[in-house]
Amino acid sequence: MIAKHGSYFHLASHNSSLILHIRDSGHPELLHFGARIRDREDGFPGLIQDFSFIPGIETAYSEDGGFSLQTISALMPGSGKGDYRLPALELEYDDGSSICDFLYHDHRIYRNSGREHTREPSHSHADSHADSVSNSDSQAASQSPEPAVSPEPVPGARALPMPRAPGETLELILKEAVHQVFLHISYDLFPETDVFACRCRLVNRGRELHIHRIMSMNLDLSGDDWDFISLEGKWIREKHIQRSPVPRGRTSISSRRFASGADHNPFLILASPGTGETEGECMGFSLMYSGNHEMNLERSEYGQVRVQCGIHDHDFRWRLGEGEQFSAPAAFFSFSSGGLGALSIRFHRFIREHVIPPRWRNRTRPLLFNSWEALYFDFDETRLLQLAKKGKKLGMELFVVDDGWFQGRNDDHSSLGDWVADSKKLPGGIQGLSRKVRKLGLQFGIWIEPEMISPDSDLYRSHPEWAISSPLREPSLGRHQLMLDMSNPRVVDHLHQTLRTLFLDCEPDYVKWDMNRSISDPVSAHLPASRQKELGHRYTLGVYELLKRLTDEFPDILLETCASGGNRFDAGMLFYSPQIWTSDNTDPGSRVKIQHGSSLLYPQHCAAAHVGSDPSHQTLRNSSVSTRFHCAAFAPLGYELDLQSLSPFDEKIISGQVALYKEHRELFQFGTFHRLASPFEGNTAVWQLYSEETGTGIVGYFQLHQEASPVRERIRLRGLDPGKKYTIRTAPHFLNILRFGELINGYLPFKVKASGLRGLAHKVISDNYLFPAETREVSAYGDELMEAGFRLWPQFTGTGYNDRVRIMGDVSSRLYILQAVDEAAEPG
Ligand code: GLA
């Protein structure tokens, strides 16, 4: 619901309210963002909390009925009129001045557009719009002739991601007090998911100006006692949860890599102290953008916290000519009074229904296997096909040829840009390989890294000017490669043609779109000197443009983006690719943390996960194939290890995993995700997936370290029907007897040696004998499982073993399957 009552606007989703107000001066302000409150025809004057005098040293906006901008809760604050906090907008006019003071001019309310991709009219705010409701006073005013605004002349501007199909939209149109510059702030409402989005567009109807800073969203929240939660990390250690109280002053997280980066995901949460998974107030803010970003907090001396996010203003300066407009990326946000768990579930629903390509909303993902960590660059067609056959035998569905398939690419020093098959490795070309893979009954996938160029490549030899670098300096390389100048439409056109040809040639079912370096030497041969600081944003728009063209033409290709794992994992990328490679790290000891952190915002069907090798290629840690699977199964699943050198034991286990995953695929990928225990707070991660429709669920229990003589444990489930009866049973779990060393002699009817030559017998038994562990099944009502909990059997304590002892270890796990019982069908 969006209601206007005089100078008040009330945007209400099912559980939240966003209340805005236009002051007499014309400044818009935020009165409330939080739990839903009753709508009032007479507005919300009680929420206005002005000082009745100008406090101390603050500046009065004007002498009549004066107030200070420093003490109000602004929406998109400018600067130069007494608000000394971080501005959301910084402009420089042609006279060199930069005062920025935007006041209410008009508004629009768009109801139930139902469109997948809504944009307000781009030519003039006065354009008629079929399903819009306008402020009638200003309708008259807007009939006076105004200079037309050209659609954004920036390549890729049309491809900027924004949430799909809002329920309703309020567009506030503000005008700079002196200059002919208009700011359109659109608040989209997604009532069922309790998410709001904000989009800003600056329209210049006056003389040329420069934008130095334009945030996507700014909210000055009342109350300043908040904890700040964000996802920090780096390569192979992405999305770790950090939490600390918001200090006075400014706190900022950001990226300046030309990618959203793993250092800080473009996402933050404010939570009242003490907020946990199931209780407490919290709100999350996500920027839908894949380039340089900043997410800022400023705790003011007047008891507010300013939260804002947008394109990073470092190296950003945008020339906006007369009649031009600039759209900032969208941001979205949500509030929960039921803790972090409820907040995440809202975001998960929102991303599924309003962000990822609609075609993938309900489509389960194939079980894939990938050549990278199996073969790296060392393959030819024969080896690939041997691997493919093995994958097929184990029940996998889609084979991905990762890096190394294109001409001369035998290591990472060359060939990026030359997207034709290496004829020595693949004599029948990529088409020949794809046909042979399909003949085996598998789908076919391929790896590309379109935005990159190797100095040693035909593309570089013919177009050195297409690489981003300074003509005055030796370029600094990342992974021996340069970045292509995606601000140049000729580069985008070339990539479009090249990839189109590739896709038509081998008709991939899946494409992995990688990006393996951060920017350096940011100079574009395409842009004039006065526009060099536009390169970062234009690069990102160029990427979106290419993604748009290719996904429009090939909507059935399952696109997985990647940037050395999760270095560009954001809602902007998810707008085009329904899933992203979460991390190059597949070690479950690290992965549980990465996937746990990721789940704060991103649903599990967006965060691809693979079963890797033992020991892990990233940490050299050992873990069982069961634990690697248990962790990777909470995602679109893949295998990425040398399937041909599996032990007979692991091979049998993997066949069972594949069958289990296929049986519960819908639940693994789309079940409602609950975090029951956090690896950032204790020794375990416990995750639950549940489907209300089918009454089925899966619980994954992960232990990081083995304690000697551990405590008894229980798991309290969530979201079940209290009156429903469920069975909960251990998913088939087998131990490798090598685990026990000489101790195994206590449990076998005969004696074996664990080491030396006679240890061979031990090895032969371990290869062929699946030692069953923990075959448990209990039944209980939902209330018992949620309130009293599911009691786990005690762990091994060094004294005795039977089938009521849980043998775990460092980095170990269990899966439990939950199933509602049809009591009517039970034998009386
Ligand atoms: C990046 C990706 C890996 C793999 C390699 C190939 O590191 O994250 O998954 O594709 O590139 O070079």
TrEMBL record:
CDD domains: GH36. It catalyses: Hydrolysis of terminal, non-reducing alpha-D-galactose residues in alpha-D-galactosides, including galactose oligosaccharides, galactomannans and galactolipids. Signal peptide: none annotated. This is alpha-galactosidase. Gene3D superfamilies: Aldolase class I, alpha-galactosidase from lactobacil brevis, Golgi alpha-mannosidase II. SUPFAM superfamilies: (Trans)glycosidases. Keywords: Glycosidase, Hydrolase. GO terms for molecular function: alpha-galactosidase activity. Its EC number is 3.2.1.22. Residues 114-130 have a biased composition (Basic and acidic residues). Residues 26-320 form the Glycosyl hydrolase family 36 N-terminal domain. Pfam families: Glyco_hydro_36C, Glyco_hydro_36N, Melibiase. Residues 131-147 have a biased composition (Low complexity). It comes from Salinispira pacifica.
